[in-house]
Specification:
By secondary structure, this protein is mainly α. The protein contains three helices and no strands.
């Protein structure tokens, strides 16, 4: 868990660094770090954390988590494309 937490901190720092990068080489360094970090991090979360802890939850709790995750994803996608539409409308 500590390793996952540290990876989340590192990822947030790199994303912040990318957002504030003043030079191309700064941006490239942040992107390279993220490209290296994310696949390993996601695999570690999936295989070493989330799957092993699933036995602590009841079937009803698992179903609730899936439903809530799906609702979040749907809302996030909707908000993303709504922002794109608004940006394009403001350009015209």
């Amino acid at each position: 868990m500590e390793q996952l937490t540290n990876e989340h901190i590192e990822a947030r720092e790199r994303v912040s660094g990318l957002a504030s990068a003043k030079a191309e080489d700064e941006a490239v360094t942040c992107i390279e770090t993220l490209v290296e970090l994310y696949p390993w991090h996601i695999a570690r979360e999936d295989k070493e954390f989330f799957i092993p802890v699933m036995h602590y939850f009841s079937d009803a709790e698992k179903e609730d988590m899936l439903r809530e995750g799906n609702e979040f994803d749907q809302k996030m996608i909707h908000e993303k494309y709504q922002a794109v539409i608004e940006e394009l409308s403001n350009r015209g």
